Each structure stands twice: as C-alpha cells, then as structure tokens.
Amino acid sequence: MSMPFYVSPEQVMKDRADYARKGIARGRSLVALECEPGILLVAHNPSRTLNKISEIYDRIAFAAVGLYSEYQLLRIAGVRHADMKGYSYSREDVNARELANAYSQTLHQIFTHEMKPYEVELLIAQVGDEGASELYRVLYDGVVVDEHDYSVLGGQAEEITAALADAYRPGLPLRDAARLGATVLGGDDGPLPSDQLEVAVLDRSRPRRCFRRIRAEELTELLA
Question: How far apart are CA 109 and CA 98, in angstroms?
C-alpha cells in the first residue's frame, strides 16, 4: 500500500497565501483618503455595473479589490449584519471596528479551513461627527490593519503607498483629494480619466446617511 502524500502545515499556509496574493495583485487598485469633508474612496474601475465601493450603514462604507463574486458575498453579509444589529439595539451601536472584526473572523475561517482562500482585500471606513475617522483594512487571511490618513488595496499597492507618503497632506479639500487619487492610481501614465474611476465620499456634513457617490459630471468637474 502506498503512503499518503504529506505536505507540512507551514507549506499549505504559504501556498494558500501566495495564491490569494497573486489573485489580488491582478486586480486594479483602490485608495481611501481622509479629507476635509470626511473620507474619499477612489477605485480604478472602468465598469459601470460592477461596484467596488458601496454603503454598509449610516456612516460606514465598504470597499474591496479581488474576485468580485467573493467580495460581493461579503458585502451582502455585512449589510445584513449591520441592519440586524441596528434594528435589535441602536443605530449608534453599529460601527466599523465591529464589522472589521466580523470580516476578520470569516476570512480567517475560510483561509484556514477551506481548500481555496478568498482572493479579496477589504476596507471598512467610518466617518465621525467631530472629524474622527476610522479605516480598517482586512486582508485575505483575516488580519486587520488599522490605517491612518490613507489606505491602499490591491494591484500596485506598494508603489501607490510610497507615492501617497510623499504627496498626501491632512485636511485636503475634496477636489485636491480626488485629483491626488486619480494621479496615484494612474502612476507613470498620468492621472486616470473620470470614465476609468469609481468615486464615493463619506461626507460627515450629510444628515445620518453620509455615503454619496460622485457621478460622472461632478467627477469630471473635480478632476478638471
């Protein structure tokens, strides 16, 4: 009788991590920037039907890169979780930190127990009343990173992060933040045009529901 094929647990985890990272790196990048109105989210996304950026709850946004079908399942689960908690307790009890922890547990469970890990990176953003904002990046294996000022997901994340480290300034006006996002996503090819971008803002000045998409005409004017 032949001996069963053995692979060490360390090698299994490494192979899964490499697989997930390669899948995420193939996708187009996304950046989130804290700015004067709140938090601006800018994604390289030429599709007009498949969204990378969505609203989760009153002051909370969800953004993702990677395999669309997988992060769409996670987005829907997050919306249901937030709605249930807000209905059962209070709307103020729903927050980005708890959602990030819930996503972390789900992705860690999938990464360690399923044959194929999810090829996704998530960003949970929340804007506060007094200028306090929260950015949580959740990796494919469930690791949560608490970000400040800006966050970059997918694609050429290291190069874009280096560019933002040089160019970002706290308290940017919305127009400057949008231009900066388009510039760093475009890289050496120059700023991306409005038809290649998906943009939304968590505007703390809006009553209750802060999430607002920036549509084509407004975005073109901002980038002009």
Answer: 17
